[in-house]
Amino acid sequence: MSDDNWRLIVDENSYADFSVSVSPAVEKAVVNGEAPPTVYLNIFDTDSITIGVNEDPQQALDLKFCGENNVSFRRRPNGGGPVYAGAGSAFLVFFLPTSHSEVPDTTTEAFPKVLTAFAETLAERYGFPAEYRPLNDVQVEGRKLVPTSLKIEDGVMTFRIVINVKPIDTELAGKIMPMAPEKVKDKELKDMTSRFTCLEREAGKPIDAAELEAMVREATTHAFGESHLTLGSVTDTEHAYADDFRAEYESEEWLFAKSEKTRFADLLEDGDTIGRGRAKAMGGLIWATLVLRDGAVLKAIINGDWHPRPLDSVGWLEDSLTGCAANVASLKDCAATFLARDDVEFAGVTADDLAAAMEIALGDQAPAV
Question: What is the tens place of the pLDDT at every residue in 137-165?
Fold first, then answer.
């Protein structure tokens, strides 16, 4: 399908459902050439939560609180961390072929290009000092305005921007998503209430769907030079894809795929030890879990909220750690060798960052059974 005509869809779905159904469906259609380059403005019709593809809900969320308060959540097939999105806020998602001259094909290029343009659009349109904060934030005087996630695979950039239009219940969000102290060690504002803001607060006026659409059109032109967006809708093919993805991504198997209870089931024996460590990189928080046997890594889980490319590469890293000698130097060498691969990009995450989390996990070893 030609890249000449870009499609704009304006729709309403919950954030969580959109993330595990419509979003991967549209991405698949664009990858397959069954849909044109697409800009999707989805306005949330209810509150919901997702965690990133390389996260464990047992680490990222307070599952006891969620269960007691009937809080539903999903693990989305994209990078980044846990996100609470409230009704009336919105998703701006770009599903764009990297063959287009203005669409980046690396994470390192995509975040600054798209988010600088988005921040400048907000500043020019509403008159408040929005700015890009590396690696993947737009902030206003230290207050985070938009969470983002990014996937660049199969010739398509899927860039997801949650626009916090309305205030969120930060007290509730903080209970659902307890913030690791490492996460905010480099932030001027430490607690969730002071760290987050919303578009209506900064703009000083109500923001409706028509205003959001106008802003999205302006941001798209600023970021990619594309001024002609044709209003469209989700196709029958995309609806069918969405149903399939929803069935897969709402399963317990998918939700806990990066959890110890899944990865270590029927694996551990007497004498095995397990340790856990966290470290903060510029690209995000790293969680390392190492199971050791006979002085070597038996199994590793590397979780976190950064944006690997491709998404499967975190699993490749975990596989490469199997059998590695259980000392910091060997683990760091393994990570460095892995990150040197031409087919891997961990933007904002270095071998030193990974080694820091694994060093803590080595020092935390205790009997696994």
Answer: 999 999 999 989 999 999 999 999 999 99
143: left (phi over 0), alpha (psi -120 to 50) or beta: beta
Largest CA distance in the chain: 64
Are β-strands 156-163 and 90-97 bridged in parallel, bridged antiparallel, or unpaired? antiparallel
Each domain of the chain, given as residue ranges in start order, spans: 6-254, 260-367
Q: What CATH number should be reported for the domain whose range is 6-254?
A: 3.30.930.10
Cis amide bond preceding 310, omega within 30: yes
pLDDT tens digits, residue range 339-355? 999 999 999 999 999 99
Q: Which CATH architecture has domain 260-367?
A: 2-Layer Sandwich (3.30)
Does the model's pTM come out above 0.85?
A: yes
Hey, what amino acid is at 31? Answer: V
Decide: helix, strand or coil at residue 336.
Answer: helix
Beta strand pairing call for 6-12 and 229-231: parallel
* Structure confidence by residue, pLDDT tens digits, 55-71: 999 999 999 999 999 88
